[in-house]
Amino acid sequence: MPGIYIHIPFCRHKCSYCDFVSWPDKIGYAEAYMACLYKELKMRGQELKDYTFDTVYFGGGTPSYIPPKLILGAMNRIRECFHLAKDAEVTLELNPGTIGENKVKTYREAGINRYSIGLQTAVDEQLEDLGRIHTARDYVYATKLLSGENFSTDVMLGLKNQTKEDVKKTIDLAAACGSKHISMYALTVEDGTPIYTDYLNGELPGADEVAELYDYGRALLSERGFERYEISNFAKPGFESRHNLNYWRRGEYIGVGVSASSFMQGKRFTNTFDLDEYMKCLISGFYPAVDCEEVSEADAKFEFVMLGLRTKYGISRAEYEKEFGSALSADFPKALEKSARYLEEDGDRLKIRDEYLYVQNSVLMPFLEEPRDRG
């Protein structure tokens, strides 16, 4: 079943690595923005009234920064306008520096049943260097407020002066505080962000160092009962992110809010990245989408392979043939031959061998090229 993504573009402070669409100086727009978002939800709900949605995900920005009544209002509007599965997974991203008892109470009233906490590192000096507004102690406080709740923790690799001991400290803290899911991903440095200067100056770990930290962290997580089910995602059994699994299975989703992307009925479309334009469109009764394209068959086949091979489940040859009416081996003969040593068969399924999953971009390159070669 498809999912719903809600983009909240406000934050208290822009982190040094962040290139997401978010603003630390426009919280005064929050109520007006959410009123427009509610209107977009109503418009999309009328269009998708025959769908049942399995997940809702509030991302950002920092959704926990805005008044919690606005999250409650969004969930009320979603229930009014969309058909949600009875056991729908509803996730809210939060920063430990923006949480409190009253907010958690309202989130529970709204029906939030999963939280994604941006810890990044348990080393306060590294948090400060990243421009994070919280400390490790704030994270502990947040997890105590969420005691008994299902929450995930983000862990970042490739930070300045980061050691294996720092990674262990962070993973141990997340596990000890009750996290059932840990996302461990490498810092991505984008041109135009403040941290890009550190990258140019050679102050950040290189790719080999980050890979070593990743392998170390993966082993620690395995010892603590977290199973890797996607390159950067580890969970206790039964606590995988259903919303993200839908992405990796090339499921449909509708994105609402500034810059939000969607994939519905074979089309991808993206909302404007401009806050003022987004609000003007909705006030005028127009959809704020500025880019829309029909996904070609060649792209759809590659996406099926690329997204599926990111996960421990791999791709099913039978599901591929059912989806596209052709065999995987007929569509990608050269790619399968070139990548054979990186792949393994598991019944009907084809997977990247565990030891090569972290470098899956290299494994997938032949698949990217082949459908276009075939015309």
What are the SSEs and their pairings?
Elements: E1 3-8, H1 30-47, E2 52-60, H2 68-81, E3 83-94, H3 101-110, E4 114-120, H4 124-130, H5 136-145, E5 151-157, H6 164-176, E6 181-186, H7 196-200, H8 207-223, E7 227-230, E8 233-235, H9 242-248, E9 253-256, E10 261-264, E11 267-271, H10 275-283, E12 289-294, H11 297-309, E13 315-316, H12 317-324, H13 328-331, H14 333-338, E14 343-346, E15 349-352, H15 360-373
Helix pairs in contact: 1-2, 1-10, 2-3, 6-8, 11-15
Quick structural overview:
By secondary structure, the chain is α/β, with parallel strands linked by helices. The protein has helices at 30-47, 68-81, 101-110, 124-130, 136-145, 164-176, 196-200, 207-223, 242-248, 275-283, 297-309, 317-324, 328-331, 333-338, 360-373; strands at residues 3-8, 52-60, 83-94, 114-120, 151-157, 181-186, 227-230, 233-235, 253-256, 261-264, 267-271, 289-294, 315-316, 343-346, 349-352. The radius of gyration is 21 Å and the shape is globular.
User: What share of the residues lie within helices?
Assistant: 40-55%
Multimeric state: single chain
Largest sheet: 9 strands, mixed
Helix count from the secondary structure assignment: 15
* Low-confidence residue ranges: none
**Strand line-up across the major sheet:** 7-8-6-5-4-3-2-1-9
Q: Please give the radius of gyration in angstroms.
A: 21 Å
β-strand percent reads 15-25%
* Separation, N- and C-terminal Cα atoms: 32 Å
How would you spell out the order of helices and strands? EHEHEHEHHEHEHHEEHEEEHEHEHHHEEH
What's the β-strand tally?
Answer: 15
Please state the structural category: alpha/beta
Which word captures the global form?
Answer: globular
Overall pLDDT metric: 93
